[in-house]
Structure formats: structure tokens, C-alpha cells
Amino acid sequence: MKQIAIFESRGPSVGLLETATSVSELSETFNLKIDSWVESGLGLQSGFNVLLSSGVAVHAEDCLERPELGVSFYIDGNALISQTVEVIAQECILAFNLVGKVLWQQSSNNVSGT
Q1: Can you give the pTM of this predicted structure?
Q2: 6 within domain boundaries
Q3: Domain range spanning residue 32?
Q4: What is the pLDDT of residues 17-66, one digit of tens each?
Q5: Is 113 part of a structural domain of the chain?
């Protein structure tokens, strides 16, 4: 896993999973730089972007004003052309040691290929 500066989505962004952790906890564990911004309707957000070993770019973010929501992970929908959402989610879960911390995970039944 390698940190990248920009998450470029050439297609629709797809929610991958949500976890019972925080961006700051993941940042500290994996030595990742956190970016912060204000999102209309949600307030202050923080997050980071990484490239998984498979080459899939992942954007992770949390809402600092609503920490109970945990961290949401997103991918470029075009990544689903070559891999299933379950395979990418599993890679993300293992890369961030999130086993047992996943609150919600996307399923192929809910995502159509791009």
C-alpha cells in the first residue's frame, strides 16, 4: 500500500465499505498523511488516498463532527471492470487490518459494472 496525493475517479465513485475506526487511528497505524476539508452539509472531513498493491486507488474519509459514522472507503467504479467489489473490499480490509471492524460492505448485487 502506498499513499497517493490525489484520488482521481474517471468514472463514478463507489462506496466500498464503512468501518468502526477513525482516519486518525489508521493514519497513525500506517503512517499516512491526513488531509482536511469542509464538505457542505457534513462539516469538517478528514481523509487520505492510497494505492492498494493491486493498483486500485482508494479514498478513505471520516466526518470529524460525526465520529460515530466511522470511516468510509471509496473506489473509482472503473476498477470494477477488472475485479469484483468483494475482491477489492477484501484487499482493503486486509491491508488496513480491519477484520472485525467492518460495519458495512458493498456487494456486487448492488453495483453494476461500468
Answers
A1: 0.87
A2: yes
A3: 2-104
A4: 999 999 999 999 999 999 999 988 888 999 999 999 999 999 999 988 88
A5: no
